[in-house]
Known about the structure:
With 277 residues, the protein is mainly α. Helix content is 77%, strand content 4%. The chain contains ten helices and four strands, in the order H-H-E-H-H-E-H-H-E-H-H-H-E-H. The strands form two sheets. A two-stranded antiparallel ribbon has the order 1-2. Strands 3-4 form a two-stranded antiparallel sheet. The chain is globular, with a radius of gyration of 19 Å. It starts with a helix and ends with a helix.
Amino acid sequence: MPNYIPYLFLTIISILILIYVIVHKRQFGLTVLFLSFSGMVYTAEFFVLILGNSYVYYPEVFHVPYYDNVLGAIVSNLFVIPVLGLVAAVYQLRLRWLIFFAVVLVGVEWLFESLNIYHSNWWRKEYTFIAVIFFFLLSKFWMRALRIGTRWTRFILLWMQGSAAVGTVMFFMSVASIRHYEIGFFENVYRDDIFFSAIMGLIKSLIFVGGIMLIRKFHWRLLAPILVYGIDVSLHYLGVLVVEIPFYLYSIIYIILAILLLYWTQYAYAFIKEKSE
């Protein structure tokens, strides 16, 4: 059996659960909350996976081992854990259900190790159990905080969902050989790229959030994608950003994606604001 099959299975199951929750609650906007949870997991994985080199995934989809590792992490960080967090938050599940989900995820980790499609460097299953329980409780907290409706709650949820969206787009731009970052922090150039991409994802999503929350008129909000494009242009001339396709083509792709992300962030803000009023 190809290594990617169990990863694909988990992804499909997660998407089906997400669709069920959205249809059952009749709220497509729950996708925003799902992405917010994804952004939170992404942020944690920056320290655990990228800096800590805690474990390695082997879906064997990409030829570049580190990108393949990150793809495996995306299955967990973008789909599995955030979807279960959404279920816990939307239905305000009791502790016994959270423990059950945590045990299932530990079981999946054990199974993936047995199949030799995942390897732990120093991470332990006990850490998985504790971290997942904490995240589920945090998800329930954020749902309650959203209903209370403070401005800082809106800001963090909007920022986290933006970082998940931006970070995922940036990753696939790397694996598609459109561009990558080189700063020399790590010897492995691909790990270097993912490290700096994660930081830039947080910065760029922060700019989008600022543009949406502080500016009312759409034509002025367009300054946000222009600003993030300007940052990349500057990094390109400094040699940090390496563009692997003609720069004019990169610019077109970048501006289109940035404007789409701006539209999405507007929708996300409208949903979050509606739920917190």
